Amino acid sequence: MSGSGFQVWMGSIQERTEKALADLLPDAAIAPAHLHGAMRYAALGGGKRVRALLAHAAGELTGAAADSLDRVACAVELIHAYSLVHDDMPCMDDDVLRRGKPTVHVEYDEATALLTGDALQTLAFQILAERPLGPSAAEQLDMITLLARAAGSRGMAGGQALDLAAVGQQISREELEFMHLHKTGALIRASVLLGARCHAGRDDPMLEPLDRFGKLAGLLFQVVDDVLDAQSDTATLGKTAGKDADHDKPTYVSLLGLAEARALAESLLAEAQAALAPLGPSAGRLAELAAFIVHRKF
Length: 298
What we know:
Blueprint: H1 4-24, H2 33-43, H3 50-62, H4 66-87, E1 97-98, E2 101-102, H5 104-107, H6 110-129, H7 137-151, H8 156-165, H9 173-183, H10 185-197, H11 207-231, H12 234-237, H13 243-246, H14 252-256, H15 258-275, H16 284-295
Antiparallel strand pairs: 1-2
Helix pairs in contact: 1-4, 2-6, 3-4, 3-10, 3-16, 4-6, 4-10, 7-10, 8-9, 10-11, 11-15, 11-16, 15-16
């Protein structure tokens, strides 16, 4: 497990990400106040900020400026928050609890939840576009494109479509992996690369091992999520436990069994940490983050 130094670092990044999000989100008193209040409700005060942590760790590795990493971290967290708002709606997963509180469509209403997700997504791209971030304007355009691909039909949105289509179906391990490389993995992978790209140019040799690490970390996160969904209770998770089984969704646990899914997580952890070997000891924060993903309790 990670030591106290990692815990202190993680806490500081989570705190600064929360503050940066609070500053970048529209004030709830500004019209349309109802929508702005819902945006803040959805994005603030919860979550482990894993994507922000990955962006900061990768960016620190390449020498990126902290204020640039704050903006990238906020962008990926806003995309993640939007996806949760939409995923929880009755037309998707129909869930009533997220991060230990009522989901947005329950706390507000379905129309507001739909608009909240839309607004959080567009704010993420505004944050990436409105100030210099990368080594050049061309590099920054690459970063915006990277996030768009990770969030779109060839990434997170496409993965969610595959997930919905798989309900009640028997799919192979390869098909399950393909689905989660998109649904969950694409944004985690992008978080790593966006953090690195705040300083590293597109031809930087560090990007290749970082990209491999990001891909493995994305799969690792989903395997562990499936395990936690199967073995934890709702109070611990902060969201409805066992909903994948209740909805007859294919998961790593339903496909492999709990013991083998746990073993797969440990194997992916070893692969992810091995992917960082070319980067040397300076990639220690990313290695610790991979271990945190595996051993997190909720």
